[in-house]
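User: Design a sequence. Structure:
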C-alpha cells in the first residue's frame, strides 16, 4: 500500500527493511557493490570538467548509504546530480518520483538512473531477475522484485515532455507583459476570469463590489507563468501563491511585482516548483486553486488535477480555463497563433487538449463536485473575451472539493 500523495510504497519499504546484508560485498548485495564502479565512471565521464569532489549529489533511495556514503556529500536544496539507482522499480508513482527528483536539480544538472528493464518480451526480465537472481543464485531477496513495476527506457519521456513545455514557455519571457503582443489573450482574459473567481468564492453582492473582495483568501495559481493572473488576483485582495516550473518566468513575475504599484502592498509569492512537490507541503491549505490555460501543457492530467485538489481545503474551489478539444477550437488556435499573432506559435498541442467532460470526470473521481461550466470566445480584432452559450472553443469550469 502506498502513502497518499507520495511515491512511497509501504510494501516495498517493508521488503527492503528486512535485508541485513547490505554491506557484505560478497553476499546478496554483490551486484549493488559492483554497480558503484559503473555509476562512478558514468558520472565522471558526463562531468569531466568538474571534479566530483565539488559537486552536490543527491542519492534518492540510498538504502543504508551504498552510493551516497561513497560520494561523501552533504546535500543542500539544489543539486548538480541526482542518482536513482535501482529505485524506480520500487516506487508507487514513477512520474511523480522522477519529476520530484528533477525538481531538486540545478539548471543544467543531470539525473542518472539504473533499473531493470521491462523488455518487450517480459518473460526475459522475469526469468533473469525473478527466477535466476532471486530463486537460483539468491543474489536478491526472494520476492523483492515485482515484474509489473519494471519500466522501459521510455520512462524518460515523462521528463522530456515536461522539459519541452518549459522550454516553449521560457521563450515568452520577453513578451509576457506586452498587453497587445503574443500574450494578449492572457491579459484580456483577466477581465473575465478574475470576476468569475470572485463570484465563485464570494456569495454576498456587497462584498463582490468592494475594492478587495478576495481579502484574506489564500489562492494558489498553478502554472503562473509571468504572473498575469496572480497579480490580477492580488489586486483584489487575495493572498496569492504562484508556482511554475520555469525559473525564468518565475523571476520575471517577481521582478514585475516589485515595480507594479497596484500590488505593492500585497505582492504574490512566487515559487519555482511543481504542483506535485508543492502539494506535499500544503495539503488542505488553500481556499482556491487556479489552473488557467495550463491543463493542456501537462503530461499527466489525472496526476496534475489530483495534486491540485490535494492542496485545497475541504469546501475549497478549483477554477480551470482551457480550450476545448474540438475541430473548431483547433481551427481557432491555428488562426490565433498564425494569423492574428495573439498567442506564441507552436505553444499549443491539440493532442493534449481536453473536453470539459473529461476534466469533470477526473475531478469527480477525486471527491469534487462540478458547479458550473461556461463557454468563452476571444475576438482578436478588439482583443476581448466574451461569455457565450456554447463551449466548443474555450470553457471555464468551477468545482468544489467535498468535505
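Assistant: Done.
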Amino acid at each position: 500500500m502506498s502513502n497518499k500523495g507520495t511515491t512511497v510504497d509501504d510494501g516495498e519499504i517493508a521488503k527492503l527493511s528486512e535485508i541485513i546484508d547490505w554491506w557484505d560485498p560478497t553476499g546478496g548485495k554483490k551486484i549493488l557493490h559492483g554497480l558503484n564502479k559503473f555509476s562512478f565512471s558514468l558520472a565522471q565521464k558526463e562531468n569531466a570538467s568538474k571534479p566530483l569532489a565539488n559537486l552536490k549529489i543527491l542519492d534518492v533511495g540510498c538504502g543504508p548509504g551504498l552510493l551516497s556514503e561513497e560520494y561523501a556529500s552533504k546535500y543542500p536544496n539544489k543539486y548538480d546530480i541526482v542518482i536513482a539507482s535501482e529505485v524506480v522499480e520500487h516506487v508507487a508513482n514513477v512520474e511523480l518520483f522522477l519529476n520530484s527528483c528533477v525538481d531538486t536539480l540545478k539548471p543544467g544538472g543531470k539525473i542518472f538512473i539504473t533499473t531493470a528493464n521491462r523488455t518487450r518480451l517480459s518473460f526475459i526480465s522475469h526469468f533473469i531477475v525473478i527466477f535466476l537472481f532471486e530463486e537460483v543464485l539468491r543474489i536478491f531477496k526472494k520476492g523483492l522484485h515485482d515484474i509489473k513495476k519494471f519500466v522501459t527506457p521510455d520512462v524518460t519521456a515523462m521528463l522530456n515532455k515536461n522539459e519541452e513545455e518549459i522550454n516553449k514557455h521560457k521563450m515568452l519571457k520577453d513578451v509576457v507583459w506586452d498587453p497587445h503582443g503574443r500574450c494578449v489573450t492572457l491579459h484580456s482574459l483577466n477581465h473575465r476570469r478574475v470576476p468569475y473567481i470572485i463570484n465563485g468564492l464570494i456569495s454576498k453582492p456587497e462584498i463582490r463590489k468592494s475594492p478587495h473582495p478576495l481579502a484574506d483568501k489564500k489562492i494558489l495559481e498553478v502554472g503562473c507563468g509571468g504572473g498575469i493572473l496572480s497579480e490580477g488576483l492580488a489586486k483584489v485582495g487575495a493572498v496569492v501563491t504562484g508556482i511554475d516550473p520555469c525559473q525564468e518566468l518565475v523571476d520575471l513575475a517577481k521582478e514585475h511585482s516589485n515595480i507594479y504599484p497596484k500590488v505593492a502592498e500585497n505582492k504574490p509569492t512566487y515559487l519555482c516548483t511543481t504542483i506535485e512537490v508543492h502539494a506535499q507541503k500544503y495539503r488542505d491549505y488553500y481556499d482556491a486553486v487556479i489552473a488557467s490555460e495550463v491543463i493542456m501543457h501537462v503530461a499527466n492530467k489525472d496526476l496534475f488535477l489530483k495534486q491540485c485538489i490535494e492542496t485545497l481545503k475541504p469546501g475549497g474551489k478549483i477554477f480551470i480555463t482551457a480550450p476545448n478539444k474540438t475541430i473548431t477550437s483547433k481551427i481557432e488556435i491555428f488562426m490565433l497563433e498564425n494569423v492574428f499573432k495573439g498567442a506564441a506559435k507552436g505553444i499549443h498541442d491539440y493532442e493534449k487538449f481536453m473536453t470539459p467532460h473529461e476534466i469533470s470526470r477526473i475531478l469527480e473521481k477525486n471527491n469534487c463536485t462540478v458547479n458550473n461550466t461556461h463557454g468563452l470566445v476571444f475576438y482578436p480584432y478588439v482583443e476581448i473575451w466574451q461569455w457565450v452559450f456554447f463551449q466548443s472553443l474555450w470553457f471555464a469550469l468551477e468545482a468544489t472539493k467535498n468535505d
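The chain has a mean pLDDT of 79. The chain has 14 helices and eleven strands.
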